[in-house]
Design brief:
Structural class: mainly beta
Shape: globular
Number of domains: 1
Number of helices: 1
CATH topology: YmcC-like fold
CATH class: Mainly Beta
Strand order of the largest sheet: 6-5-4-3-2-1-12-11-10-9-8-7
Distance between the termini: 42 Å
Helix content: under 10%
CATH architecture: Beta Barrel
Order of helices and strands: HEEEEEEEEEEEE
Largest sheet: 12 strands, antiparallel
Length: 219
């Protein structure tokens, strides 16, 4: 179970870079969306991981490519995230006003769509994605519950102020004795025309990971 929780928490470190619209259901991409997708756009994040008494700092340089993939009828842009240890590929989508990324992991039983924003929903509205976690011979029912916490706010990240920001919270829940129980929480701050400016992940009320934007270029 612990391994499963850590894997799902770790996906918040993925670059949530740029998104492409669904041709019939989404707004025109670019500065009118909460995540530009133009090829060559770049975002640089200061990342902090806290495990026990150990704090690790790193920088992630995230670059949008021109490649687009279709998964389950939805379009996802391909972005790369280069850190000191490796370079990984991220899939980011904007479909029917929902911004999401794809997680692929054997423990999670395959692909999971991680939905972190629906810009059409009002404050306090929620939605969820149900899936299952495999842990050895055991199978656990799990859920990602996303809540719109604030809209139209200002947010300062690393001494830079951003406006037109939406704050969302994604809660990872497991079903225990017939009820879903919150295990970890991820707060997202997304600025219009910029993208993700801050990600803060907590487990048992302790911050275990944060990713904060310090520089970006939109092509």
């Amino acid at each position: 179970m612990k391994k499963s929780i850590l894997i799902l928490t770790a996906i918040t470190a993925l670059f949530l870079g740029a998104c492409k619209k669904d041709k019939t259901n989404n707004p025109t991409p670019g500065n009118d969306t909460y995540q530009p997708f133009s090829t060559g756009s770049q975002w640089k994040y200061r990342e902090t991981s806290i495990i026990g008494e150990t704090t690790t700092l790193d920088t992630s340089v995230n670059t949008m490519t021109a490649e687009v993939k279709t998964i389950s009828g939805k379009q996802f842009h391909v972005a790369t995230a280069a850190s000191s240890s490796d370079t990984v590929e991220s899939l980011i989508g904007l479909n029917n006003n929902i911004y999401s990324t794809i997680m692929n992991d054997e423990v999670a039983g395959g692909a999971i769509e991680y939905q972190y924003l629906n810009e059409s929903k009002p404050v306090n509205d929620t939605w969820q994605t149900d899936f299952q976690i495999e842990d050895g011979e055991d199978v656990f029912d799990a859920r990602l519950k996303t809540t719109i916490v604030e809209k139209g706010i200002s947010k300062t990240v690393l001494d830079k102020n951003y406006t037109n920001v939406i704050h969302t919270k994604v809660e990872l829940q497991f079903k225990v004795a017939g009820n879903y129980v919150g295990i970890s929480y991820v707060d997202f701050y997304i600025a219009k025309g910029v993208g993700i400016i801050g990600i803060y992940s907590t487990v048992q009320n302790k911050v275990v990971f944060k990713s904060e934007l310090f520089n970006y270029t939109i092509k």
